[in-house]
Each structure stands twice: as C-alpha cells, then as structure tokens.
Amino acid sequence: MSTTLDSHETTSPVEEEQRAFDAEAASLLVKKLREAFASGKTRGYGWRVSQLKALAKLVDDQEQQIVDALGNDIAKPPLETVAYEIAMLKNSCRVALKELKHWMTPEKVKTSIATFPSSAEIVSEPLGVVLIISAWNYPFLLSLDPVIGAIAAGNTVVLKPSEIAPATSSLMAKLLGDYMDNSCIRVVEGAVDETSALLQQKWDKIFYTGNGRVARVVMAAAAKHLTPVVLELGGKSPAVVDSNINLKVATRRIIAGKWCCNNGQACISPDYIITTKDHAPKLVDALKTELETFYGKNPLESKDLSRIVNSNHFARLTKLLDDDKVSGKIVYGGEKDESKLKISPTVLLDVPRDSLIMSEEIFGPLLPILTVDKLEESFDVINSGPKPLAAYIFTNNKKLKEQFVGTISAGGLVINDTTLHLAVHTLPFGGVGESGVGSYHGKFSFDAFSHKKAVLYRSFLGDAPVRYPPYTTTKLRLLKALIGGGILGIIRAVFGWS
C-alpha cells in the first residue's frame, strides 16, 4: 500500500495553518486523550456502542459526500466506493455492534491441579491511547475500519489520514468532528511534519497502513517507547493460473481484483501472474477479450477506471514500463495520458524476473505474466521473494490446491478468486514477514487494540504447606507430582511410594 509520508503535495491555506501542529501540540493532544481515558468513560459498553452507532450514522448520512471526495482524490468509480468502502464499513459497524457484548465478556479458562481450588479467566482490556495512520488508496475504509476496532476495544484514538487524498482527509476530519466524541476521538491532518510530531509521542499502540519503507520509520519510532505496532503493508501478490479451469470466469475474477480495485492501486491486487508456457497465449487472449468488454476499445476514456493518484506515482509506473527489459513485452494496453493521470490496463508477457517491474510492488494497472514449464515451479518462484500480503491460485486440481496452501506463506490465500477474503470478517486480515505485522477485521480488530489480561481467582481454602519452607524431600516429591499434574503421581508422593 502507499504511504502517508511519501510525498509533499501543494497545500491549501487551511493546511498551511495546520503546519503549526508540532511535537508540543502532539504532546498536549496525547495528554488530553490520556486524561479522557483515565476518566474511565471509554471502558463502558454504553460509550463504545454510542460511538459505533455514531460512526454507522456518519457513513449512512454522508454517503454522497464520501463518493464525491473519492471522486476528487482518485476518480474512483462510485460503485467501487459504495461496494468496497461504504458497504464494508457498514458491515464492520454492524458486526461490532452485534458481537461487542460477547467480545467484552471475560473468557473462562481451565486451571490446573497445581492451583486447586481456583478459577481463571482472560479479561480483554483497552490498551489506552492509540494512533492510527492510514493510506490514500481506500482512505475511508483503511482509516475507519481500524477506528472501529479501537473504539470497540475501549480506547481513545488519534487518526492521521493520508494527505495524498486531501479531499477525503478534509471530509473525514470534519465528519468525525461532527459525529464523534471529540474528547476521545481526534483527527490530525497534515503531511510529514505532522506525522513525525505524532510519532515522537508515546502511544499504547500504533496501527499503520502503508509501505515497507515508512513502516520501518514507524517501527523505529515505536521502539523508542516499546510501543506495540500493527503494520498493514503489501508486497507482490501472485496469481497462479492452471490450464484445467473455466478460463473466462478466472480471467474476470483476476480483472476484478486488479483493475476493478482502484485500477490496481490496492495492496491485495494481483501483482503478477504465473502460468505455464503452453497456457500463456490462451490466458492473454482471454484477458484482452474481457478487458475490452469491461472498458471498451479506449480504456483511457472509461469512467469505470480510477486515475493514478498523483504525478509522482504516474512517473513511477511510467519508469517501470520504460525499462528496457520490459518495454517490448507489452501484449495489451500501455497507453498513457499524463494530463489526466490515466494509464490503461496493461498486460506484459514473459517479463524477466530481474526486471524493475518484478523488484517492487507495482501498485498500479500493470500486470506482468511469468511463464514456467510446470505449474509446480511457480511455488518456488513465489517463495524465492518476500512473503506477499495475498496469494491466489486458479485450479481444479485438488493436489495442487493442497500443495499451494501447505507451501505458500502469505498474509492470506484465496483459491479460484481474488481479494474476496478481505470481506470475510471471521478471517484475520494482515501480512507476514515484509507484508506486515499483526491483523485485524471483525473480532481480530477488537483483539488488535486489546490487552488479554490473565486473572486467577483463589479463596483462602486449600493452602498447601508444600509451598512453604522448610523444604523436605517429601515436599519436593509432592511438588514434582503437582507440577506434573497426574493424580496417581500425587497419591504416590503423599504416601511416599516410589
């Protein structure tokens, strides 16, 4: 995913005024939020529910403003905004409101004979004051979905939206100011200076969505205060395509995950395809046919494709295409309009693995296809690089599916589709290795912002002398038996039997 720290955009007078937000202002903000948290108001079920309902109402009331803001920032088609941001936020609120009482209820757990008589439970308690730094590509979803988890868990929150989506950032600041409890939930707009000021503070958790380069900055800042982090990053998510499949359906689902998601500007979009040399021509033809069906003969004119977010990212993607190793590998697309920041869906075949386009996350509408002799070789190709955020395979071969699940380490896997695991709230969403640390969605969001506190209850009965001096051989035998947990061993120890 992209980052909040990777560009300096032209600022408005309002943003100029916000540059006054420095380390001192950040420190004062955190102090006020700690005072609010210390008052206990966020710990109650009632406050959490009221804020979740307010957030749900915000999304309901302001749907058109949200659509318009995303249209301004990235020319995102309204359907994509409604389906992938608004609907998913509503669902997250609905799940949290439905399950919150259950999530908050202490979990009873078994105890051992060593602590008999006793009972135990795990209590979920809020961490305190948390910082959420979000990304520009799905600015409402990736900002407010973590906020839902933080509120559900009972924390006070600072949200730092991405300045690369200025219309959405501004709208979010206004709406959260209007709808939410501002003594506990705050938005800080700005760019590098503001984010740096926030990162200097001590937080109880930092949740960052973006890229690996900035994640290292966030993690280094967090380490100074031993602050735990959740890092939602990205990587090169592969799609393996077998030959024994419904190629039309598979192709449409790849397109849906690639170009129907922000024109490829999504962390879980297929980053490249691996298929066999024999099957590659059929796959390319299918992609051409379906892409033309979806976006017409001149996709740069299509209103169903998002634009590239800004000139920096346009130049970055152009550089990938202009690389000598891949410029002759384009088999479909490649058209660009810099004045409109538009790049058409582009398919490249037999791209060298040492090319620039294969060395970094593409995060755009370019889709390279690598070819292998046998599909099983694709697993070695994937595992030779950093672990991706997502990995996809299209096959009807049961053994291949099992091998894929057992062999490929990624944040999440989908068999015979792309990106849909994001919508399943009972699945954790997050990366592994360089694609991220920690996970969220549904109860996993609640857990991400909670501390699991161990609680053991005992009465004054059953006070075993074995714990206390003087230590004897008999006590040692009994203590070993108690730790071992076997009834027969305890009986033997009591009676001194070997």
UniProtKB/TrEMBL annotation:
Keywords associated with the record: NAD, Oxidoreductase
Signal peptide: none
GO BP field: response to abscisic acid; response to water deprivation
One family name in Pfam for this protein: Aldedh
One Gene Ontology molecular-function label: aldehyde dehydrogenase (NAD+) activity
Ranges for domain Aldehyde dehydrogenase: 19-455
UniProt key word Cell cycle: no
Highest taxon listed in the record's lineage: Eukaryota
Catalytic activity: an aldehyde + NAD(+) + H2O = a carboxylate + NADH + 2 H(+)
The keyword tRNA-binding is assigned to this record: no
Cited InterPro entries: Ald_DH/histidinol_DH (IPR016161), Ald_DH_C (IPR016163), Ald_DH_CS_GLU (IPR029510), Ald_DH_N (IPR016162), Aldehyde_DH_dom (IPR015590), Aldehyde_DH_NAD(P) (IPR012394)
Family indicated by similarity: Belongs to the aldehyde dehydrogenase family.
Name assigned to this protein: Aldehyde dehydrogenase
Species name: Flemingia macrophylla
Lineage of the organism: Eukaryota, Viridiplantae, Streptophyta, Embryophyta, Tracheophyta
